[in-house]
Design a protein that fits this description.
The protein has 704 residues and is mainly α. The chain folds into 3 domains: 8-38 and 265-454, no CATH class; 91-200, no CATH class; 459-681, Hypothetical protein af1432 (Orthogonal Bundle), CATH 1.10.3210. The protein is built from 29 helices and 4 strands. The strands form 2 sheets. The chain has a two-stranded antiparallel sheet. It is rod-shaped.
Amino acid sequence: MPPFQIPERLKTLNRRTLRGIILAMVALGAYISLLIPTVLRPTDFNLTVGEVAAQDILAPFPKEYTSDVLTEKAKKEAESRVSPVYLPADPAKSRLQLEKLRNMLVYIGLLRQDTLVSVEQRIQDMTRLSTVSLTDTQARYLLELPESNWANVQEESVSVLMQIMRTPIREDQTEVAKKAISGLVDFSYSPEESDLIISLAASFVAPNSIFSQEQTEIMLQKAREAVQPVQKKFASGQIIVLRGQIITEEILEALQTYNLIRNDKTGQELIASAAYIAVLVGFITVYFNRRKISPLYDIRSLALIAITFIGFLLLARIAIPDRAVIPYLFPLPAFALTMAVLFNLEISLVLALIIALLTGYGLQNSLDITPFYSISAMVGALVLGKGRRVADFFWAGLGVGIAGAALILAFRLPDQLTDWIGILTLIAASLINGLASSSLALILQFIFSQVLGLTTSLQLLDISRPDHPLMQFILRNAPGTYQHSLQVANIAEQAAEAIGADPILTRVGAIYHDAGKASNPQFFIENQIPGKPNPHNELDPEKSAEIIIAHVHDGVALSKKYRLPRRILDFVLEHHGTMITRYQYARALTALGGKDASIDMEKYRYPGPKPGSKETALLMLADGCEARARAEMPKNEAELRVIVKKVIDHCQKEGQLGNTNLTFRDLTAASESIINTLRNTYHPRIVYPEIRSGDYPVREQKEK
């Protein structure tokens, strides 16, 4: 299957415009995904408390939730059992009432002694007193009462009131306290005197224990806090409300928990979702503009990232809402793992966070789901890396599962309502999720690599095996080229490690960069037998250059024939860039007496293109350095450094490195790496002296 190609009409568009269009489509897809839980509600009833249900409504799936209505009802019941709190009896209040009684008794005593006023007038004055309630009979009896008896009545009245006021008396207990006075009067007094004492003392009985609003509120709050949240359970298919039943607050709450009630805030949800998307899109735009990550500048790669992102997000928003176990089974981390394998770790980590934030938005369990997906996916991506072996996917899946299980324990253990069976179920779901995510990532990376022509580490490792058909073809037809390619691969790989480029891609690309030489091996010096004539000597320079240049096209043809990844073709096409075949061009100059005016240089120039990545640029440098070192055989490190410097300077002078983003620091590090590798390859060897048979003793063998 040929890799997917961008239509030609799209290639004509500005890349910035295309990136903007793709980003806008991603934003739209993400916005739609946020609205999916609302759109996919099982039903949509417009009910309020007090209305009559027009039909039976069943629970669409099992669910357990904390009922705020029932919890509040239980709290109110607890409040009703709390008695009002009153402060202890106030001594000052008691003393005040006693003082009032004594003053009244003094006043009555003065009336008893006032002989200038008639008896009837004094009786009238007593009955009109506002602080004491006396009848005419009691007033008359009081005036006629002997002084000794009056003194006893005064003393007993004060004593009785003092006893009553020593006990806490609330506002609602005043009458009870007054009635209790009769039981405190000494039995030695006559009935008339007892009635008089009761009337005098009762008139001054007043509340001395005041209601405490503050203390009562504290007791009410403690009663509310002591109430545990009330859990409500529904099994799948259980009746929530019957037809004809009146909707109560409890029923309405259950319907709202299942999102079965029409939301009157749809407009607000639309605006809120749009604001959320705008923030995340702004973050992604600013971040990746700052970072300048290369895959995002390739339209094909960017389109793949966008489609995969939206696909995972839409499926997650459909499957996850209002589910108990499925959210922990859904393999969302597979997206991050796939991005890590196909592109790089940074893209994987950032997008893992973004897709987790979008997946959990607006869900009831978002505080659990969002960190579960984001952290577990990041852990898996870090463990997986470039996914160079199948075993790496297994360990990545295990990392996802263990990280998810740890997060479940972190969020569920503090919840007293979660049982161990539920926790173990979710942990098992997390482990399954990890293995499912890694398996799905393994499948997706294979599909994408085949359909879109992307290169993965597994592909590179597979085609780097010595038994690969194309490698065997090169070995059989051009063994010299095979050895040369291995040498160049070692040099380029080490240089890639030194500057932080992709070492595996560089090595595999270097192995196959000269594959085209296997089509005509006799025309390349490394495959020629020493002592035999060079076939180029029989050809004119132009024809000779044509044959040499043709190894690039032949290499592309062989790469396509053996289905090498598209990225490897870049190494075949770019390892000479647009430089000229120097040996043939020099022969042409010699033939014309050093005059190049009549030479068509394009016939001596490789078709290119120039290296477009750090990896292909390193191959160009390694190829040139290895060839010159093998030809000139430097005797020491100084000569080797001169060779490497000449090759790098020549490539720079020819403008071959301008599209590679190689910095001066990269070139310095690459140069040192190449020198070190070549030094170890072309180090001086000891010339061993010949030993004649007569120069050393021969051990005689004894006959048996």
